[in-house]
Amino acid sequence: MTTLLSGFARARRWLRDHPLAFDAALAFCVLIAMICGSFADPGKGHGPTFGTRTPEAFSVLLMVLAASALVLRRRHSMAVLAVTGGLTATEYIFMDPPAPVVMSTVIALYTVASRTDRPTTWRVGLLTMGILTVAAMVFGSTPWYSQENLGVFAWTGMASAAGDAVRSRRAFVDAIRERAERAERTREEEARRRVAEERLRIARDLHDVVAHHIALVNVQAGVAAHVMDKRPDQAKEALAHVRDASRSALNELRVTVGLLRQSGDPEAPTEPAPGLAVLDELVDTFRNAGLPVEVAGADRGPRLPAAVDLAAYRVIQEALTNVRKHAGAGAKAEVSVVRVGVTAEITVLDNGRGSAARRPGSESTPDGGGHGLLGMRERVTALGGALTAGPRYGGGFRVHAILPVEARTGEPEPPGPAAMTGERR
Q: Within the chain, which residues score under 70 in pLDDT?
């Protein structure tokens, strides 16, 4: 049984790959059926009888021509239907009793219905049914209501209906296949988008961690080198700050890089992400680095959502890092976090003079990066907030972020607004 099924499957694949051969075999089978049917006499009242009549040479010629036309039924379906329909009508007009040339018309009508649309099937089917049925009723010797004449109407109608059903099923299957392929492409695009978003988020975290802590290490190391000989106690204190800053940097890097681990990897980080709860510790690190920072207002209400809390912390961290790097000697900073209705407003001000890198539109920064404001904008915009940054009237710089208390999660991060900034620090 398995061998028989496999052989049938191979034959079916071969015929599907060679449609002309299939149509030639079908045409031969239809010719045999028409010739066999031409030996049957319809009879009167007791059904058809075989062997009582022989088909005329003209009928045989018409059957051969009609069967030969079926070989091209896929390439020229309408032309084949017109040819077979004309040969069938000719048989009904000139021969009595007629040979079953109508079999070829039924096959051709089915092909047209299965390869065109429904309106065309209706028009062509009704026209073919009407012409052949009228020809059989008018020119035949049997009564117009005989079963042979009604059979012409029934067989042509069933051919149209069967072809339309096959076309509808084929279209339904193609639609399902197309939807499945589109869904597969959509899943792949969604996976790539999520990978890109995660890569961008991790890049922002790494930038914030490295920029902040390395800047502090650089400042404290410079202080230690400057006072090493004259004031060793102060140098020792500066080196202690270097050690603390480097330890904090390593811990945050471990947490961030740990996100890249596979789900089954051991020692996955479990520390919570930093937030406004440790704002005082963040400010102390800058004060230890020599930057006077005043916390003018800090929100003490219920804790913000994790994503908003982290974004607010990173905005303050990056803004203070930029003040320390670019504001110049003697600069002071002021931080405020205020909850206004359904939003939290974060403001970082400084009175520094700084360099040209702090002016809007500058295309270069001392560290060659220029991703600080871009990263802050991306963070804030991804949560549905807004960030503005620019020089203050009378000197200094201002960073102002508005974050929604309820973060918008699950939405793609729009890169457009983040890329529109002309300010690079």
A: 1-2, 4-5, 8, 42-48, 50-52, 205, 207-213, 218-220, 223, 226-227, 229, 245, 247-273, 298-301, 354-371, 407-425
Distance CA 253, CA 271 (A): 12
Q: For the whole model, what pTM was predicted?
A: 0.48
Q: Does 42 sit behind a cis peptide bond, omega within 30 degrees of 0 on the bond before it?
A: no
User: What are phi and psi for residue 169, nearest 5 degrees?
Assistant: -65, -40
